[in-house]
Fold this protein.
Amino acid sequence: MLHTAIDNDERAVASSPIMELRGIKMHYPVAKPMPFAPKKVVKALDGVDLKVLGSQTLGIIGESGCGKSTLARVLSGLEKPTEGKVLFDGVDINELRGAERAAMRRNIQLIFQDPYASLDPRMTVEQILSEPFEIHPDLVPKGGRKAKIAELMELVGLNPDHLGRYPHNFSGGQQQRIGIARGIALNPKVLICDEAVSALDVSVRAQVVNLLQDLQRELGLSFVFIAHDLQIVRHISDAVATMYLGRVVEQGSYAQVYDHSSHPYTQALLSAAPELRQGSNTARELIMLQGDPPSPIDPPAGCRFHTRCPIAQPSCSASEPDLEETAQGHQVRCFFPGPLAGRLN
Amino acid sequence: MTQLLEVRDLRVQFSTAQGTATAINGVNLSLEHGQSLGILGESGSGKSVTARTIMGLLDMPPAKINGGEILLEGEDLLTATAKRRRQLTGPVMSMVFQDALSALNPVHPVGRQIGELYRVHRGYSRKAAKAAAIEMMDRVRIPAAASRVNDYPHQFSGGMRQRIVIAMALALDPQLLIADEPTTALDVTVQAQILELLKEQQAENNMGLILITHDISVVREVTDQVAVMYAGRIVEQGPTAHVLGDPRHPYTLGLSQSVANEDLKGRRLPAIEGSPPDLLALPRGCSFANRCPLADEQCSSSAPPLESVGAGRTSACFHSGKVASNVAYSN
């Protein structure tokens, strides 16, 4: 084995935050329709605090446009936030320069949604997998790289004899395995999976989910798992955060968020997923949300969810609730948290 | 009474630079008025090609229909003239596509695109067509339809655009609606709204509905009947609750197991190993044999026919009787 496996006792000790987001804002300017039009920004992330624990999986759920993918880009250092800190092992990654930054970068890796588009079509798999070692040459000496790459291939369930092939020679599931092999090549601590299994067919998706969980166990990786398949997020996550319009509205353990959801949005979102209604031991009644999420350019005043919330009160549009702890480790951003059952008219 | 739709032994191939790909390899389907049928399958299984062949939307070449019949209320569509097809498309059958934005014309207001159907097929005046378009937009519950009729597709959200595409498909009260992955590009909250709308419109108009999807939970939610496709063939067919609840084909079983559920938390998912066969070189025997835990020599030498396995159910497996009890997918 190329990495030391950590056993369960160590895993519990390792569960201090490895990454932390503090007050992250990510605002993108919008092209002005006219030269003197007022300046507008898309508030993709608007004050996000999150912790990624060691050797654990943090799942992120929410509708498109809620800021999930921006979060992945900020976490991985691809995007510098407008405001706030991205801490890795207590150090703000955006403060680092030069060699320190390069060294930090290899600890955080990203796996993308479209496996084919994220691999260079003109490079063989061997070239793709040796690139990380060329960028970080001190990690594995030149002579040992070939063996290391073959080892990586086996680790993700691919045949090392196929190293000379090009990405298009592989099926979608195999391409995603190559992306995963590249992601874990530098022994990262955190792997960010942005819709990493969404493009795969159901039968192949299960294989890749199993692979990710095996790798986590063997290598002690932390995952940030972003997906719109709510059942898969429940399956793979230890902790889950629900996002709505650039904010975290609920977070806690997977059981707290899924089985004892307290924010009306989380409840409505989960109830809309047929796979959860059908594969659940607890009955979920469909709570139909009207319309689409409002624009992140002009988010509603007060609670951002009040325009679609089935239990909104006049006070909800006046001020925004804080993320408050309702149970140990379970935080909710709502003035009226709790199960919706019996509160709908 | 004649069947609304009957597809008999349909075969479609595509010629590609690498050779001939068999997309549909002998598909039989039937649908009654007011019935809903889900076609479930992975990418490359032939589900969308089936829909496009029925609608006459295949690009030929590269596609080639190598045999079979498609009977719409008894009339063979494959031998119908182009003119006759145009008469049928809209008033008798219509289709909803996955990507609503590319299904709409970006340079015309949505009201005009819906109204065009009435102008062409029913000879309405401009004014009457616009009124009919507003009525249709109301029916698919687009808020403030009268004030949005002159808006362009890009001014609508993804869910609203899909409602407009559905409004166009329903405008001439068709008897058959084919929806190809209508909610795949949408968020779950919007998916719930669109599925609700489709179910309701189907029931109200006693319309036949074919819903094409890769999502087993959507099929369970919406359709009475299901046909499971794999590598260009239907491998299992029957009432949705029975087929998905108690599969008689190892592929259907594998599909329903590999979707995570609450009880699998913390465990590995039962996965079907391998990947679907290459359509350029389909195996001689059962296409699923190389991934199937039940496969034996018979399976790799001859392809199993679709045979009855109980009331209204068929399965294409030599070992259909053993499926429920003995199949275990690796995990």
Observations:
- The interface with chain A takes residues 42-43, 143, 157-160, 187-193, 195-196, 214-218, 220-221, 254-255, 258-265, 268-273, 275-276, 331 of chain B (CB under 8 Å).
- The mean pLDDT of chain B is 88.
